[in-house]
Amino acid sequence: MIRHRSIGVAAAALVAAGSAFAIHGAALATPGVLAAHSPSSTSVGARPVVILVHGRGQILGDSAAVRTEWSRVLQSGASKIGSGSLLSDDDVWLAWYADALDPLASIACDTLPASRSAANGERADDERLRAFFAAAGAGITAALELIDEPLLRLEARALAGDLLFLGDPLRRCAAERRLDDVLARAELQNRPVILVAHSFGSLIAYGYLHSTALPADSGGFGIQRFVTLGSLLGAPGARQLFLGDREARASLPPGVHAWTNILDVRDGLAHPIAFGGDSTRAGNVTTTAGSPGYDPHHVLRYLADPVTARVVLGAWCDAFRVTPAGVAPAGCDSVARSGTTH
After folding, report:
1. Distance (Å, whole) CA 279 – CA 273
2. Which of 15, 112, 197, 207 is the least buried, fewest Cβ under 10 Å from its Cβ?
3. Cβ within 8 Å of residue 253, ≥6 positions away
4. Does residue 309 or residue 3 have the better pLDDT?
5. Residue 107's pLDDT is what?
């Protein structure tokens, strides 16, 4: 049960946050160990690497279990286009930021990177909105001890973390740094990257990419394709916060060669993204063929979708052209035969 006075505090914060910016994500994860997947630092022939960025609701998640399951489901989607098992275990990494957004953890950047500070020329309205999110996140965090129901407390804890990401630049920096660490490993190994971000993770990935000038071409390193699944970035509130205007169009971030936004037409939280610039390098792809048994917004539904597999594996196969070998595995032929997507 919830103590009487906690109802008003939590409910008011939840309603206010929801009315300002609708954010909801995947189901709560199974409790486990919070440890990022650590890819080997040894070169593996500069094979491209798929880097997954999770959505919200993973505070008590097991990062190793999440990576394993997501990789398996992605492979199952690949089987639907006849490509078989193309990806080895070291071809799929996970950028894990959940603990960086845990409001009960003291994880934050001490100072903002120069690139983030320089990008903060926000309008007064945006500053007030971020201040509101920061205050709402702090308020929910303070009220957590008043909530006796474990599942409600956990959901409130996750929501507080989401709000702190949106309102607290140092907390946002900590989450984005997790992605930076994984991309730095890929750069060290000279591996082209296919970056796949789901739901709230697409906000973290875009915010990082937009404020961090990645090299457009550095010996084959770079984001060969940015793939967003069930992204919130097209929502007016997200466009205001991340693009500076509710009507703004998204452009390819520096160092990103192409961007595909995949959305299930039944996913009420996913939004098409209005792209600016070269339309041959960025676009939306809709689907209805996700795995049954999951909510349309669920990440496993997207990963099991042959449309997702075609986009992700197609980009992975294409990325071999910038590696020293220059030749993709034989199984990539079936991906090419399955058809092309944006």
Report:
1. 12
2. 15
3. 206, 209, 210, 214, 223, 226
4. 309
5. 75
